[in-house]
């Protein structure tokens, strides 16, 4: 099989793993504190990634360690709030709300770096915000606590991705992965120690299944494959593949958790998905393609 085709298939599988992780996490942390769950998830992921990136780990310098620590602060905050959101809101709903992050990134770049934002991004943001309103805002115009946590997590993850892009431009981002997750583990250990409701050795089987699944598949596997894949697949194509995460999450929530997809989620989720898709369309390339297909203009 062609290497590019194989990596595309592995990325799609990784996106499915991410989507399924919303339901797995909800089963794992239901009624329990998320602090020890995330501590064990990050610890296992760090151990696995230390083996996977052994060569890079030997050559990790001070700059990569500092970058990893900076990324870990944002990533830990994002995943912590995301897990809290999943505790208080349907898994499928959290996945669609989190999907707005793809559109949020260019808007934040405008505010931080004064980078120009294409018109399709503004259109996408308007469509996605309409979807977010339908999904999250109730009839009495209140927003659920789970949705608020997920929105905070989405901002955190957007800032994390912006920093990853910045660090990638200055060197090999792979060297930051192990220090990053090691720092995530340390941060969650401190949070768990301060958490009076933390249960260090839960007897619930679903808790440990969730830890193993999220550590191996939605953390170690996905980060390894995505870093390798982006050497051969353009960022634009990778972003389009990631668009299907909420779809996998919605299907998994129905099968695993028995959730029902309300009209609000179907309509609002469709708008969020449409907005995300609009944000990835390269209108300039399409116009150029149309001109070539239509021959020289008269």
From TrEMBL:
Gene Ontology terms: cellular component: plasma membrane
Transmembrane segments: 39-57, 69-89, 95-112, 119-137, 143-162, 174-194, 206-226, 238-257, 263-283
Transmembrane helix keyword on record: yes
Organism: Dyadobacter sp. 676
Statement: the UniProt record of this protein carries the keyword Transmembrane: yes
Record membrane topology: Multi-pass membrane protein
Protein name: DMT family transporter
Keywords assigned: Cell membrane, Membrane, Transmembrane, Transmembrane helix
Subcellular location: Cell membrane
Residues in EamA domain copies: 10-136, 146-278
